[in-house]
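Q: My hope is that you can spare some time for a protein that puzzles me. Underneath my words sits a plain record pairing an amino acid chain with its backbone structure tokens. Those tokens are not coordinates but codes from a learned vocabulary of shapes. Thank you; the sequence and its tokens follow:
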Amino acid sequence: MAQDLTVTILFYVFAALSVISAFLVITSRHPVRAVVALVFTFIFAACTWLLLEVEYLALLLIVVYIGAVMVLFMFVIMMLDINVEFNRAGFVKHWPVAFVVTILVIALLVSVVGPSHFGLGVVAAPKPLPADYSSIKALGTALFSGYLYPFILSAVILLAAMIAGITLTFRGRRPGVRAQVPAEQIRVQPKDRLKVVKMKSEAKKS
């Protein structure tokens, strides 16, 4: 009983911190601070998922989104040097529309994800899992058994998209720009790079 109460308290604490940090993302005046708040939002969401025994999604959120995507966003924002005053002026101009859209989205979320659709009276509480249960193992078993072909197909589609992106952005070698040619580097011989010159020794003149 005490363990269930501790888990419940931690769940609400992490959920509240996630909401607060998410609110800071949209209210921060500096984009770098917004990105830092978004990182904390992902961390608190991952902690919430750990309490729900969804370890794979929690680790995926930390490794992929925080470890890669957020770092990329941070570098992009710092390199772009965004004009904060200009963007803020545009936001102030359209804030009534943004306020109305925000109220509509909140009402939609409450109506869809509220107790009338996802409460304990509609959805039964999940059964307790054994101590040796691993959600990562269960997901891997389902992914590479019943969903093997869709998994391979998605990997091929992502590979094709990556090759297409590289092909579309490649403009060829520009004149005057030095580039490495791996084929020439492989074919190189020691005699092409090193030249031994024999010289007679000379006495030092005093």
Notes: The CA atoms of residues 63 and 69 lie 9 Å apart. The first helix runs from residue 2 to 27.
